[in-house]
Amino acid sequence: MKRRLIRILIALPIVYAVLLGAQLGLTALHAKSYFSSLSGEYDRTTLDNQSNQVATDVDRIFTLLSVPVVKQFASAAGVDFTPIRDEAVATIKASSWIAGADAPKRYMIAFQNSAEARGTGGILGAFAIVELNKGSLSVVRTGSNALLKSLDTLPIAMPKDFERIYGDDPAIWQNSNISPHYPYGAKIWLALWEKQFGEKLNGVIAVDPSALSYVLKSTGPIKLDTGEIITSDNLVSETLQKTYKRYEFDNLARKDFLVRIINKSAAKLVTGQYSKLGLVQSLVRGIAENRILFYSTDIEVQRVLEETRLGGSLSLTGKNEFRVVIINTDASKLDYYLARRTRVNSIACNKNGGVQVELLLRNTLKTGVGLPSYVLTRADKTRPHALVSGQHRFLAFIYGPPGSSLLSARRSSAFGSAGGLGEERDRPVLVVDIDLAPQQSEKITAVFSRGTGRITYHSQPLVRVEKVAIDDKCG
Question: How far apart are CA 79 and CA 309, in angstroms?
Answer without folding.
Answer: 20
